Amino acid sequence: MAAKPKSKMDLIVALAKRRGFVMPTSEIYGGIGSSYDYGPLGIEMKRKLADLWWREMIRKHDNIVGIDSAIIYHPKTWVASGHVDGFTDPLVDCKKCKARFREDELVKRIVKGIKGIDEAPLKNDGQNLDADHASYALIPCPKCGTKGELTAPRSFNLMFKTHIGPVEDSGDAVYLRPETAQGIYVDYPQVQTTSRLKPPFGIAQIGKAFRNEITPGNFIFRTREFEQMEMQYFIKPGSEEEAMEFWKGERLAFWRDVCGIKEENLRLHQHTKDELAHYAADAYDIEYNFPFGWDEFEGIHSRTDYDLQRHAEHSGKRKDLEYFDDQTRERYLPYIVETSAGLNRGMLAILLDAYHEDSVEGNERVVMRLDPKLAPITAGIFPLTKKDGLPELARKLQDDLRLDLDVFYDETGNIGRRYRRQDEAGTPFCITIDHQTLEDQTVTIRDRDTLEQQERPKLDQVAAVLSDKLRG
Ligand code: ATP
Question: Strand, coil or helix: what is 115?
């Protein structure tokens, strides 16, 4: 029987591990559910994506500045933000087989008539939710099939709690931040003053966030530890529609034009009334056509002055949080429009979009068509043979380029094999030093996608040629 063709997700997971993009963490101990490490290629690509975002959001705009806030904030931050009371996922348990499911997943599956469902493996102390949730008494457990054994949904907080100091005393309980946004809200008066910003202005940061997700999965799509790239845009009340329009366009263009994701795999989804968070006036998701369906990897949210109102109340520092416009003599709490992207989910979308299989002169190849700006290695440098002084020339070129560009020297195997290895790593250009280089100092540059061998630039022109290509 022919082997079942692998799904695109399986292919990406395997390639990511094989080539050192992303791999399960602490594998010698069997790994830990949905925690991943970024390998030598993955970290280069992740840093490049983060840098492109930083360039796009901060360097491109006079009125946006960056910060890097702590991961552990004053615990009152999370009371004010609503996370202590409201950041929960309702769960349903099977009393017979002890399997646990997320209520929203269960409902989705039941509506779609899908059998089998991801279990929610965590142990956690839940509280019963109010009665208006659906009753599951008549529904068979998706795992063991027994009817009448599913509990009413119970609520689990998704924040990771820990303690400051050696004693586990509830007075010292703190949380690992579940989002980076609140760090921006609590720092806003300081940053606005030191940077002399006037609405509309933005504060941005990239950093880790932690959520005790009940059903992590789909590789790096949903993990318990992840990185967000968030920008909070502080605006005058009444200008939120204009700001939403602007950022919807900008953010979609970033993923399409800067990161090179195919247009047909991207779309904007406006939240319905039921999907909107209680404080949000309007919200859009930027979705990618993942192998498991269209799903969000960035949110653009119109949050009104909800967050600043809450921090004003809980801190008692309303005056500090208000903006005073010295021209109109108005004092107000700014409204906020946020753009909140997942660095890891963005990586997953880009990796999936880049994956291609084709054949070159009858040889099958896997090629990652990553945008050159995001490729972990910009150029491979190959001496055609290991003798006649070619390796020395190639090493010299590597030394000339290495401080400004990511280059990789390879002299092992035939040239075709070396190309294949770089194709799989997403390397857009390969430079070959051959015997003609000895005569006239010129090299060939092979393009990963067109397979064209460029006209031969001189060795001392290679840096400029590659820089031009990176600029696109
Ligand atoms: P979801 O509905 O998928 O749980 P969310 O709506 O809670 O996501 P937000 O709180 O809006 O997500 O977070 C903004 C972005 O942060 C998401 O678009 C996503 O890219 C990223 N993100 C959120 N949770 C996770 C996670 N558990 N793993 C990886 N990335 C995440």
Answer: coil
Task: Please give the number of the atom of ligand 1 that sits closest to the Cα of 346.
Answer: 20
Domain identity same for 197 and 227: yes
**Residue 90 pLDDT greater than 90, yes or no:** no
Same domain, 207 and 293: yes
**Measured in angstroms, how far is the CA atom of residue 264 from the centroid of ligand 1?**
22
Q: What pairing do the DSSP bridges indicate for beta strands 154-157 and 127-128?
A: antiparallel
Question: Which of 75-89, 303-317, 354-368 shows the lowest per-residue confidence on average (mean pLDDT)?
Answer: 75-89
Q: State the CATH number of the domain containing residue 141.
A: 3.30.40.230
Work out the burial of residue 171: count CB atoms within 10 Å of its CB; fewer than 13 is exposed, 13-18 middle, 19 or more buried: exposed
Question: What residue type is assigned to position 258 of the chain?
Answer: V
In ligand 1, the atom with minimum distance to the C-alpha of 228 is 16
The per-residue pLDDT for 124 is 36
User: 3-class DSSP state for residue 274?
Assistant: coil
359 lies in some domain: no
Give the tens place of pLDDT for each residue, 198-208: 999 999 999 99
Q: What CATH number does residue 429 fall under?
A: 3.40.50.800
